[in-house]
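sanity check this:
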Amino acid sequence: GINAEYMGGRRVGGRRAGLRGRGGYEQPGNPYFGCIVGRYANRIAGGQFSIDGVPYQVPVNNGPNCLHGGLVGFDKKLWTLAKEWAGSDDVGLEFVAASEAMEEGFPGRMELTLTYRLTAENQLWLEYTATTDAPTVLNLTNHSYFNL
């Protein structure tokens, strides 16, 4: 997912963290650096699956497979900053997005929330929540890389 306010481009230890702006994240061939991956992280063989006996075809974008949600997965979606906080125990950001029914071939309208929280103990927590109005598949992950 992309957030225009908190995108990469910041300098960390003399190195750039993330791509240089929104355009870099939207380009075909971007290797999913620093993004939220979904609706389905990883590959769906042949771009086909079924739910309750109903077959679905999603776009193939990795040889014969659907990778990380298809041609326009959550990595290309502009997420909205809904909340930010700084407390004595943690700081955090909460982003929201929606995915319409049959977007990229996936059934069910979905409301998504992703919360990033950094604790006073230097723990990074990511919490994903989603609700849908129909049976669907969902496998979210974060595709950030860390230089530890």
